[in-house]
Write a structure and sequence with these properties.
The protein is of the alpha+beta class and 384 residues long. It is built from 20 helices and 7 strands.
Length: 384
């Protein structure tokens, strides 16, 4: 109670009504009663959503765009003081209100002002286009009706940045209802954003359920949607020879771009069909058919697939290996070349060692010298 009395006195003192004591007393009584009511109901004036939202800093940023196949790839990035967020969305020109079609491919720099209107808010853009490329600035304006609707669903204290992401990714009431009807009620607002960002639609959910996956969690479905893993992809992997892959393996394969086309190309290299694990490793280190052909055209025809992966892992090139061979090591293996590359032993290092009077230095000694294990070479290796 003392705290309430102090707060009401501080409020009335700020009104500067000392010359009107009667009015000051009436206002003071009114304010005191208001604070008592607030205390009893749990209302906190600092938590007033309108006041709190007004205190949040406006979300602003920059944009760049490119035009291809009649679509606009619009990249939006927030200013650093808003916390980084960047994404690219593909839109038809008709989705951007006020953007003249003739400005997109204009030969001269043409100023533009347009906006992207979504349920969560509107993003006005300004800048220019020239020859299919554009750039400029934007400012986000949240939609109070959307905020109220979300509050009615139990989502309080949504930040301005979350609203901006909701607008960019087109989170809307229909998607929320569709997820609810699919059995995903009570999701967090972040989970709703994930659904919009990853294109987790009812069609995607129903496709998995129709394929016999009836009990996938929202988190699992989100991960599958993020990496574009679909039941159709399972069929593609089976056709490529990979039966009974787990969902984790399918996700890993999709992350690295494994598809039936890559498997068919790998089979033409003469190693047979790579195992699933080997195929993923090939993609991880960019061991493509072109990579293998480049090595073979340089005269390395008898290298195994595992050695090719090892060479790619450590960025060993045919040029590097041939340079080492030319320094008096014609029998060097791919594994030895990779070991030297890791240690930083190259043609110039070998020449410096030999110039110091050690023409018979071995690969092992070169590696040890790089590691600092030799304070001096054996006398027998030094030229007399």
């Amino acid at each position: 109670m003392k705290n309430l009395r102090a707060r009401s006195q501080q409020f009335t003192s700020n009104l500067k009504l000392r010359r009107h004591p009667a009015m000051s007393c009436l206002i003071g009584l009114f304010v005191f009663c208001a604070f008592v009511a607030a205390e009893e109901t749990g209302w906190n004036f600092a938590d007033n959503p309108v006041r709190a939202r007004a205190a949040q800093k406006a979300i602003t940023g920059t944009w760049t765009a490119g035009v291809k196949d009649g679509k606009i790839s619009l990249n939006v990035v927030t200013q650093p003081d808003n916390g980084f967020f960047g994404t690219t969305i593909r839109l038809s020109p008709a989705e951007l209100d006020g953007l003249p079609a003739e400005a997109l491919m204009a030969a001269a720099k043409t100023g533009v002002n347009f906006k992207l209107a979504r349920e969560a808010g509107t993003i006005p853009f300004d800048g220019y286009f020239q020859e299919g490329k554009g750039k400029g600035n934007w400012t986000f304006v949240s939609n109070q009706n959307f905020i109220s609707a979300m509050r009615g669903r139990g989502y309080d204290n949504i930040s301005e940045k979350e609203l901006f992401i909701a607008a960019v990714k087109n989170l809307n009431a229909k998607l929320i209802e569709d997820l609810k009807n699919a059995g995903f009620n009570g999701l967090s607002f972040q989970e709703l954003l994930n659904a919009a960002m990853f294109d987790l639609t009812p069609e995607f959910i129903n496709a998995w359920r129709a394929a016999g996956f009836d009990n996938l969690s929202f988190h699992r479905l989100s991960q599958l949607a993020l990496h574009r893993v679909t039941p159709a992809y399972i069929g593609e992997m089976k056709t490529a020879g990979y039966e009974n892959l787990t969902l984790d393996q399918l996700t890993e394969a999709r992350m690295f771009g494994l598809d039936s086309r890559f498997v068919k190309e790998a089979e033409t290299l003469g190693f047979g069909r790579p195992s699933f694990h080997t195929a993923v490793r090939m993609l991880t280190f960019n061991v493509t058919p072109e990579f293998v052909r480049n090595w073979r055209s340089a005269g390395f025809d008898d290298v195994s697939l595992e050695d090719f992966i090892h060479l790619a892992t450590h960025n060993v090139t045919p040029k590097f290996l041939n340079e080492i061979k030319a320094e008096g090591f014609p029998q060097i293996t791919p594994r030895e070349a990779a070991w030297l590359k890791i240690l930083g032993v190259n043609r110039d290092f070998i020449r410096r060692v030999k110039a110091e009077g050690f023409p018979a230095v071995t690969l092992q000694q070169l590696g040890e010298l790089r590691l600092g294990k030799h304070s001096k070479m054996k006398t027998s290796n030094k030229k007399q």
